[in-house]
Design brief:
It is built from 16 helices and no strands. By secondary structure, it is mostly helical. Helix 6 packs antiparallel against helix 8.
């Protein structure tokens, strides 16, 4: 059995959201990797992302760290850099930004690859946006788009459009956000990435709510939620349920809003998404107060 055939099969299954099958092939490739450090690092990192999508943070982090150690030992700098991004992404999901930033800042010292450095900048932009630093996030996102375009990385362009739109949304610029996020939806479709498409769809829903298009906003939020629930992505499911609760509050349906928020809070606590726990407790506490 050729381990590279196993890797190719795993990637195909992952793109089709057949995660159990993908993991089976990744593990087979790992078992057959032997002294091929590039392959071992690759399949470990890819497994880390699959577990990340399932909100299994500890397993994801352990695999990403193994990928980084394997790559570093073999002096595979591009692979090492990509593994650091996978490590950082777990910290981002947990809201542990102070742990994520040093990992991302190490990337530029390891590689000049446009796609990889673009990914690091993209994540730094997402952190800056979450912290409310609009100008820094804008700078990182714009530079990441340039690098993704130079690398011909359509999925990265879609990610950058999504997160740049997300930053505009958090900054209260709903019209700009809606435009950028519609571009992200289009880019995700071109990249044939259903997970990114669902994420961009959820963000478009929030932008549309900000412009008063409530019916369409709820339709898109529910469409995104169906994807996250089906694929077992607890982190994004929490975000989507929080949004649906917010939409209900905008319609003055407090009881319905609380149901969404309580459901989201239970999941957030289970998966250890601390930033989401804080946001949801604030919503529920404010309503109780």
């Amino acid at each position: 059995m050729d381990p590279y055939d196993e890797l190719d099969s795993a990637v195909i299954h992952e793109r089709q959201n057949e995660m159990d099958d993908a993991l089976g092939h990744y593990r087979a490739a790992e078992a057959l990797a032997g002294d091929d450090s590039w392959l071992l690092s690759e399949v470990l990192r890819r497994q880390a992302y699959v577990y990340h999508s399932r909100s299994e943070w500890e397993r994801s982090l352990a695999l990403a760290r193994r990928a980084a150690t394997t790559a570093a030992a073999a002096e595979l700098k591009d692979q090492h850099a990509e593994a650091l991004i996978a490590i950082a992404w777990v910290h981002v999901a947990r809201g542990s930004y102070d742990e994520a930033i040093p990992e991302l800042e190490r990337v530029s010292a390891l590689t000049v690859d446009h796609r990889i450095t673009g990914l690091a900048l993209h994540n730094l932009g997402a952190i800056a946006a979450e912290r409310g630093d609009w100008e820094l996030s804008r700078s990182h996102f714009m530079e990441s788009v340039k690098r993704f375009q130079a690398a011909g990385y359509q999925r990265g362009v879609a990610f950058a459009h999504n997160n740049y739109g997300r930053a505009a949304l958090d900054h209260g610029n709903f019209v700009l956000a809606a435009d950028l996020l519609q571009q992200a939806v289009s880019s995700a479709k071109k990249a044939s990435d259903p997970a990114l498409l669902a994420l961009a769809t959820m963000n478009v829903a929030e932008a549309l709510a900000g412009t008063g298009e409530m019916v369409r906003a709820e339709e898109m939020a529910r469409e995104a939620l169906e994807h996250f629930a089906t694929t077992g992505n607890g982190w994004r499911r929490v975000e989507c349920e929080r949004l649906l609760g917010d939409l209900e509050m905008q319609k003055a349906n407090e009881a319905a809003a609380r149901r969404w928020w309580i459901s989201a809070l239970e999941t957030a606590r289970t998966i250890g998404a601390q930033l989401e726990v804080v946001k949801l407790e604030e919503r529920l506490g404010a309503r109780e107060g």
